[in-house]
Prior knowledge:
This protein is mostly helical. 70% of the residues lie in helices and 0% in strands. It starts with a helix and ends in a 5-residue tail after the last helix.
Amino acid sequence: MHLFPGQIGEVVFTLLVTVLVATGLLIVLAVGRHWRRDKRFRRLDRLRDIYGPVIARLLAGKLGYDQAFYVLNAISTPDRLAVLELLCLEKKPSPAALPLIRELCYYLGMVEIWQQRLSQRADAVPFRTLLAHPKTLWLRLTHLGFLERAKSAENLGAIRHQPSWPLLVKALRDPHPDVQQVAERALAAIAEPRSFGPLVRRLHTAVLDPGAGICPRSVKAALSSFPLEQAAQLLPSLQHEHPEIRFLATDIVRQMVRRRTRHEPGLVLGPEDLGPELFDLFLTTLCFDESSEVRARAVSVIAQLQGPAATAALFTLLNDEQWFVRIHAVRAMARRPCLFQLTETARGLSDPHWLVRQTTAKTLCLLGAPGLTEIFEHFLRTQDRSVRDQIAEELQRAGLIPIALRRYESHALGREARLLEQLVQMGKTRYLMEVLANGCSENLQRKFVQDFAHLGGPEFQAKLRMLTTSPPQAGEEALHGLVENPQAA
């Protein structure tokens, strides 16, 4: 079909008008939607200002529960649920306020609504019903309903509503992944022991079936939030043939133990804490696991176990073939600061990998005076230049130079004097001179110049001259003389 020039103009004009009208309608819809949302938020803010003091006075003990319930239950606006959620859960409830907030949410009917929203999924509605209710069909097709389900699961976890755990377990099979992850976190917050098993099975599915769309890290984080008493349920996972499942299960136990010991410093765990089977599994199997990742995670747990078998297992891991396993073992030794272990730990100062040597030096520093003695002795004993350089750097980084200077001041011919002599000969004097120039006694400065001025080169001599000429003080001339002629003393 051929179009005349006049007809082409009409078609173009029609298309242009259509586009402009459609654009105008979209702008009107967007402005209207924004206006409605803004109006709703202003209404919510106004209601929060009115009823917020009621919640604050209730939690402060200045208002009785019955009075507060009567006032809040009288809210009858279309946004009643949103207002109550804003008042009760805008801030995370403190442990002391949690029982009161949970009771309010229950008797105000919020818990029932959350449970209904979480259990009603569009995918579970028969197709004939979906056709009769276009809105439900639209939610099914667009997944928009997941926002309400996710928010409901989050609220149930926020108030730690224990009876809702079966619904949250069912929500792990929700068609939308965001709802599944929120349900995981809610189950972790509630920490119902009967929900631990379904989460473990979900972890296995995440590893064995990558196409399931389950994030193993999020499931691991949820399981790690459970108390240590549930760790025994991980026995099948720790003995699973798949190395990643063993790794994730070991890491879960590690985080459980770390949280327990953080609340109880110095705690040593026995078979009664982990269960005899799990206790023996770490000492006899996991420390020799074929996966180096599993061995590395097992170290932190073994470090908290009691008995000579745990110490023997740590010594084995100190000599592991993988360097990062040895690093974990060295760090773990700081949690068992027994003097007879220092020699075994100090062997890491000669490790082939520089990170192991650095970690060993840091660990020995944490062990106090015995650890410092081992570092000083190894520094003087080793002939490996790279090892000595790294120990010297760690001495400066850990702030041990001032300690060595104080010991040197009181023991002229001791180990510290030989240490300082080696540092000067190696040229590691920058930090040393800063310490001497700030806060050291005049007697120590004079003694240092007398013993070591002849060992350094011209740059070191210049540093000593700056040290002795910086503020005028008694004995300045004597220090100058010692720098120029250290043997004259």
